[in-house]
Amino acid sequence: MIIxxxxxxxxxxxxxxxxxxxxxxxxxxxxCGNIYIMNIDFKDKALEELYISGRTKDxxxxxxxxxxxxxxxxxxxxxxxxxxxxxxxxxKSLHYEKKEGDLNGVDAVWITSQYRxxxxxxxxxxxxxxNALIFEISKHxx
Length: 142
Prior knowledge:
The protein has helices at residues 14-31, 45-53, 59-62, 66-81, and strands spanning 39-42, 97-98, 107-110, 115-123, 129-139. By secondary structure, the protein is of the alpha+beta class. A five-stranded mixed β-sheet has the order 1-5-4-3-2. A hairpin with a 4-residue loop joins strand 3 and strand 4. It is globular. The termini are far apart.
């Protein structure tokens, strides 16, 4: 699999081609066993479709503003490029938090100040958290 196929941007401009080439090199290094990245899965097909193409037919996410969709793709790329969950603490704009109460066991990062990306995290056989199951884009305070 080539990472450029999964990227939510078009490779037409030079800047985006450069980013795609860098990510393809990173993917090659990962396949060689030199670098680890988080495994990202999508519980909902609409979220995967929104990440890959930037739009979806699902009513829940079709009304999102274009800037929220772009930021969503950027946040998923941050998750994908993290070697483990602790790396997300270093990216201050994500405001990573572990939810409590009704959402006990759920991890959340900011997409914007109004929207959150909710996901479940799980460890690998070494106990390092490297798996994320994205299940919802939540509007904060609703």
